């Protein structure tokens, strides 16, 4: 079976703040910015991975989500309880310094893990957990 990841989705409550973080701090490129029926989807990705995209979407964007579902998702997002993504980097410490300087919420300073990576963690402006890992010997 020939499978590849194409897109993943992250809920954000303010696309402009999310763009300032993902584009200006992390250096991801904006690939699409679409509005539809009062909602907005922004697609970003690493220049190093032109075929993989992160879609920054409104909380509860599914057309099948009930108003109660949308409210529950928005509340979980506000608490930082929704999952984010894990990025790899060649220099965890340099990335940490850059993201910390932006004022992002630090969850974990760079740490050597027993499973062979050095990683750190932050929350994006919406509260999503983002981890950044450097493989040992990278």
Automatic annotation (TrEMBL):
<dbReference type="InterPro" id="IPR004360">
    <property type="entry name" value="Glyas_Fos-R_dOase_dom"/>
</dbReference>
<keyword id="KW-0456">Lyase</keyword>
<keyword id="KW-0479">Metal-binding</keyword>
<dbReference type="InterPro" id="IPR029068">
    <property type="entry name" value="Glyas_Bleomycin-R_OHBP_Dase"/>
</dbReference>
<dbReference type="Pfam" id="PF00903">
    <property type="entry name" value="Glyoxalase"/>
</dbReference>
<feature type="domain" description="VOC">
    <location>
        <begin position="4"/>
        <end position="135"/>
    </location>
</feature>
<dbReference type="GO" id="GO:0016829">
    <property type="term" value="F:lyase activity"/>
</dbReference>
<protein>
    <submittedName>
        <fullName>Lyase</fullName>
    </submittedName>
</protein>
<dbReference type="InterPro" id="IPR051785">
    <property type="entry name" value="MMCE/EMCE_epimerase"/>
</dbReference>
<dbReference type="GO" id="GO:0046491">
    <property type="term" value="P:L-methylmalonyl-CoA metabolic process"/>
</dbReference>
<dbReference type="GO" id="GO:0004493">
    <property type="term" value="F:methylmalonyl-CoA epimerase activity"/>
</dbReference>
<dbReference type="GO" id="GO:0046872">
    <property type="term" value="F:metal ion binding"/>
</dbReference>
<dbReference type="InterPro" id="IPR037523">
    <property type="entry name" value="VOC_core"/>
</dbReference>
């Amino acid at each position: 079976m020939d499978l590849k990841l194409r897109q993943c989705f992250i809920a954000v409550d303010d696309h402009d703040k999310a763009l300032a973080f993902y584009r200006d701090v992390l250096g991801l490129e904006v690939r699409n910015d679409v509005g539809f029926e009062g909602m907005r989807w922004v697609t970003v990705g690493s220049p190093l991975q032109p075929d993989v995209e992160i879609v920054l979407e409104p909380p509860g964007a599914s057309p099948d989500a009930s108003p109660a579902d949308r409210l529950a998702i928005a509340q979980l997002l506000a608490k930082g309880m929704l999952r984010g993504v894990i990025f790899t980097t060649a220099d965890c410490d340099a990335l940490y310094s850059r993201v910390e300087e932006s004022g992002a919420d630090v969850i974990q300073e760079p740490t050597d893990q027993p499973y062979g990576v050095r990683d750190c963690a932050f929350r994006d402006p919406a509260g999503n957990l983002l981890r950044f890992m450097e493989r040992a010997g990278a």
